[in-house]
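Tokens as discussed.
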């Protein structure tokens, strides 16, 4: 029989043994642990982990920072010297970094919920919160910005670029750069709120828009809303099809000079006019000119070409006509006729129409027939008596247009010169004939005087 004092001593020994055993950790694992158990120390020293008796990791005493590959505490919760590799996405300060979900290869994501719904899309780059969030199978996209290319409809966009918060490339190979900018398929939009809304359009400038296939809008708030439109300048907006606009919506706002061509520099640009077309960029005196073509249409069909108007000012209202602008000039597309100061150029027998007259130092007219035939011996000169009868009846010379005809139809300068020369030549022949008769009369008169004088003696 065990005595009571022996039993008490045994109990204490067993308790101490159990306590010692409970605080030991086995290399094969422990069981029966509680939340009060821990691996570490209760001293103010770092917890060090070694392999091959070399330090591999350390948990600092103050702050509990984890150091891997270094013994220097730089103040970061995790400090690693060496490479870091993970097979899954990493999340740092609520920013996800990795390749995203799905089976697509070569994806790069940086941002919360970036590329979050991807299934098989590959070669995508999504940087920013919710960037490319709805993509499932689209590939080869580059997206930078919060909510960039994050529209629920954009699940299969390919080859697009969207840079800027809320920017969107809604079609394949669209490029959208700027906050809330939008680019359709094959379109380019650059600028905050720039919108290239149709295929192949280009918009550059804040709030610029291109809304029809292939249109171009460049400039703050420049817009093209019609077929074939191009707007270049602040606030310009097309109002009809196939318009090309250069300039500025506000009169007198900013520089309005327009220069086309090569060779202009900052120092000599001021010497050019408000509109300058210089097709050659060569320098020096021996330059080779280039052809400049201005056309309103092209083709061999039955359609008619438009007219070209040259004005010194733009009509202010629908009531302003071309005739009201004194120095206006028109080139008629259907005939090629040119009018200066007038638009009445319908007569196809002529090419140039001038309203107020021409001042020049020299005029040369090509004429196919010149009336030297008047001096031919076979030419029949009209008798003066017949000429008198014609003039008294018609009040003008033969072949010379009447005053009424001239007022109604004008005068053909070349033909009129030929007619006047013909009349001068005919008059010359009459004078020569008359001179002969006068000489004959003077000779006869002299003979008569001699005979009278002899008779008087």
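Sequence:
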């Amino acid at each position: 029989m065990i005595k009571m004092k022996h039993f008490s001593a045994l109990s204490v020994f067993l308790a101490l043994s159990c306590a010692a055993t409970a605080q030991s950790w086995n290399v094969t694992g422990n069981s029966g642990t509680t939340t009060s158990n821990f691996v570490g120390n209760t001293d103010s020293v770092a917890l060090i982990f070694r392999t091959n008796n070399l330090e591999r990791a350390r948990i600092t005493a103050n702050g509990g920072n984890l150091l891997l590959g270094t013994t220097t505490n730089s103040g970061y919760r995790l400090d690693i010297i060496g490479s870091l590799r993970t097979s899954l996405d990493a999340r740092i300060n609520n920013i996800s970094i990795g390749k995203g979900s799905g089976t697509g290869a070569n994806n790069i994501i940086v941002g919360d919920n970036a590329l979050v719904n991807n299934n098989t899309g590959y070669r995508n780059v999504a940087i920013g919160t919710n960037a490319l969030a709805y993509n499932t199978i689209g590939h080869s996209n580059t997206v930078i910005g919060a909510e960039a290319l994050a529209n629920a409809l954009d699940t299969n966009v390919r080859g697009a670029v969207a840079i800027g918060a809320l920017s969107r490339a809604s079609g394949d190979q669209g490029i959208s750069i700027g906050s809330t900018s939008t680019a359709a398929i094959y379109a380019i939009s650059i600028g905050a709120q720039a919108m290239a809304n149709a295929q192949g359009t280009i918009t550059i400038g804040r709030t610029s828009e291109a809304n029809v296939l292939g249109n171009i809008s460049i400039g703050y708030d420049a817009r093209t809303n019609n077929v074939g439109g191009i707007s270049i300048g602040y606030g310009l907006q097309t109002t009809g099809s196939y318009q090309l606009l250069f300039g500025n919506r506000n009169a007198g706002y900013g520089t309005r000079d327009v220069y086309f061509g090569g060779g202009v520099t900052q120092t000599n640009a001021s010497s050019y006019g408000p509109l300058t077309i210089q097709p050659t960029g060569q320098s020096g005196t021996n330059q080779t000119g280039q052809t400049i073509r201005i056309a309103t249409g092209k083709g061999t069909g039955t359609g008619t070409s438009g007219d070209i108007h040259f004005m010194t000012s733009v009509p202010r209202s629908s009531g302003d006509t071309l005739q009201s602008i004194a120095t206006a000039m028109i080139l008629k597309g259907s005939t090629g006729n040119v009018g200066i100061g007038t638009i009445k150029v319908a007569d196809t027998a002529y090419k140039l129409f001038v309203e107020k007259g021409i001042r020049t130092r020299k005029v040369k007219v090509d004429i196919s027939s010149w009336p030297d035939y008047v001096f031919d011996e076979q030419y029949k000169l009209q008798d003066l008596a017949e000429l008198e009868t014609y003039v008294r009846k018609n009040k003008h010379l033969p072949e010379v247009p009447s005053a009424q005809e001239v007022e109604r139809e004008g005068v053909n300068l070349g033909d009129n010169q030929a007619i006047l020369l013909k009349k001068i030549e005919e008059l010359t022949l009459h004078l020569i004939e008359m001179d002969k008769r006068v000489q004959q009369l003077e000779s006869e008169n002299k003979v008569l005087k001699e005979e009278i004088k002899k008779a008087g003696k």
